[in-house]
Amino acid sequence: MVDVLVIGGGLAGWRAAEAAVKAGASVTLIANGTGNSPDIHAINVPVRADDSIELFIDDTLKSGGGACEPELVETLCRESVKLLDEFPFDRGADGSYKTIQPLGCSVPRCVSIDHKIGAWALAKIKRELSGKVSVIQARVTKIIQNCSLFTIHYSRGDDDASASARSVVIATGGWCGKYDFSDNPPELRGDGIALAQSLGAAVRDLDAVQYEPTVALAPTRLRGIPVITTMLHEGATFRNRLGEEFLPDKYANKDAISRAIFAEIEAGRGVGGGSGAEPPVDVGIWYDATGVPRAILETRYADTVQRYAACGVDITREPMLVAPAPHTSLGGVVIDASCRVLRPDGTPIPGLFAAGEVTGGVHGRNRLGGNAGTEVLVFGRIAGRASVLASRKNPGMEAAYFAFK
Ligand SMILES: Cc1cc2nc3c(=O)[nH]c(=O)nc-3n(C[C@H](O)[C@H](O)[C@H](O)COP(=O)(O)OP(=O)(O)OC[C@H]3O[C@@H](n4cnc5c(N)ncnc54)[C@H](O)[C@@H]3O)c2cc1C
């Protein structure tokens, strides 16, 4: 029996484990993969003089199309600035933070560490927690709650086993791994939503999926790997089969850009689809970065340049074949700002918490680029801390904590 059992080995899960260990809890983490978190390139934190927490809140609510849960957005944006004390984000020679402008943000807001904040943060947390968390590589298949204890059943292929815990944090990511053409790994199939529902959780926006507008269709080795959209701010554009430029508003959000690309393909001006299949498959458009100054491509986008060069494609001279693909699921388990999982009547399920892409409400129906990374760092930590309080079974203390929150 442990105090806290975390399901999921992405950043939301590891942040929860980190916070729980720091609060003195015994922790087990079960995961069947690494999820999307190692791919997080940059995250949103308002650091510039022309930015503010209020503008960050405003951008997030606007992007969500009226479907965000304001309390969660407020928590996301206000807590984000605390990350500045924890992470040595990259700075320029003048000491100011290096930022890039994701789609939908009204000012540059994305910060990172060597363009790999996800992998960097995971490595740091795992190093610090080495020997302090019991890690099981397995797929959780069932959770049973009996009085205030949880029994978690998991499978490692032929070998099924179970563990028990006083609190559970569900951090199993989204469901975009279920689609044929996606940039997510196949283990991300929405298990956590089903597990939470089996315990009575409310869910929301299960039809809301964000497409990444520019995911590589070819060459084969790169199929399913997203190509960064911020190049649109540096001179990149889209071209159709006829070579015509059709750049939608380059400050539009990912959703609007994906729709514009699909409209071009539906109008018969897509590129590819030569297999004769009906309806045509593998039709995309050209993402043309040849207009981006070479020096910028080779510094800011060195990863992309090198990845394509390794497949014989020089993106400083030729365009990339891309198409929109399911990238982030936006709906999920309903939580409050303390990451407590809520029932349809709004009451919390005692001892059950969730954080990260498995939850709904933070992004509404369209996620601001860079907000998922901020979400997992902020809410993973909140879930870990809250789960420890719940596991200590001191109702007075727990009630006071959540009332204060
Ligand atoms: C290619 C790519 C690039 C991205 N870049 C950015 C970016 O730059 N900035 C940004 O803000 N967002 C980005 N995102 C979105 C972001 O990566 C995700 O939203 C975020 O990583 C979700 O983190 P998570 O911890 O909730 O889930 P994940 O990191 O996906 O982890 C989920 C974990 O749950 C485990 N799991 C699932 N089901 C089970 C089960 N039944 N039993 C046990 N374990 C289970 C998985 O194996 C995995 O360990 C990107 C997404 C992709 C696909």
Q: Short summary of the structure?
A:
This protein has eleven helices and 18 strands.
Topology readout:
Blueprint: E1 2-7, H1 11-22, E2 27-31, E3 43-44, H2 53-63, H3 70-80, H4 83-86, E4 110-111, H5 117-129, E5 133-137, E6 139-146, E7 149-156, E8 159-170, H6 191-198, E9 203-204, E10 209-216, E11 237-239, H7 254-269, E12 271-272, E13 283-288, H8 294-300, H9 302-309, E14 320-329, E15 332-334, E16 340-342, E17 348-354, E18 359-360, H10 371-391, H11 395-404
Parallel strand pairs: 1-2, 1-8, 2-5, 8-17, 15-18
Antiparallel strand pairs: 3-4, 6-7, 7-8, 9-15, 10-14, 11-13, 12-13, 13-14, 16-17
The structure holds flavin-adenine dinucleotide.
Number of domains: 2
CATH topology of the largest domain: FAD/NAD(P)-binding domain
Total beta strands: 18
The amount of helix comes to 25-40%
* Oligomeric status: single chain
Taken in chain order, the helices and strands follow as: EHEEHHHEHEEEEHEEEHEEHHEEEEEHH
Distance between the termini: 28 Å
**Unique bound compounds:** flavin-adenine dinucleotide
**Main sheet summary:** 8 strands, mixed
Beta-strand portion reads: 15-25%
Q: Please state the average pLDDT score.
A: 93
Low-confidence segments, given as residue ranges, are: none
| Rg from Cα | 21 Å
